[in-house]
Write a structure and sequence with these properties.
This protein is mostly helical. The chain contains three helices and two strands, in the order ββααα. Strand 1 and strand 2 form a beta hairpin. The chain is elongated.
Length: 128
């Protein structure tokens, strides 16, 4: 599973599509901030994911507010999209993913931050 945290992802083995596992398989793999081990059920996993999704929405709203503020410091529409800055943000996220605990897979960091940039630039152009 450790190879699933770097880029590119390895190919799935042919047996993956036909393998049946006894549920739950494996053991809990990470400790929550309160010191308990996650998770005893799929329902508990989903509650945790939903809580994080709500936090992500709040953080994205704050990020969008900063994006809007950035337009105040740009003199032309042509200065809104700065490809070098976009790469810096994406690569910064990928690099940071290597030291998170629990570990964030690089492919998720890259894909999410590419999507954030790809949504933020048109928004910034719109509010310019």
């Amino acid at each position: 599973a450790s190879s699933c945290y770097t880029s590119p992802l390895p190919p799935l083995p042919p047996s993956a599509s036909t393998e049946n596992r006894t549920i739950p398989w494996g053991t809990p793999s990470f400790t929550l901030p309160n010191g308990t081990v996650c998770c005893d059920s799929l329902a508990q996993v989903r509650v945790g994911i939903n809580e994080i999704n709500a936090q992500l929405v709040e953080l994205l709203a704050q990020r969008a507010a900063y994006v809007r503020e950035a337009t105040r410091f740009k003199g032309t529409l042509g200065t809104v999209d700065v490809p070098a800055r976009n790469v810096e943000v994406i690569e910064g996220a990928v690099n940071a993913s290597r030291t998170t605990n629990p570990r964030l897979p690089e492919t998720i960091a890259r894909t999410v931050f590419e999507a954030i940039i790809n949504a933020s630039v048109p928004f910034e152009r719109c509010v310019f």
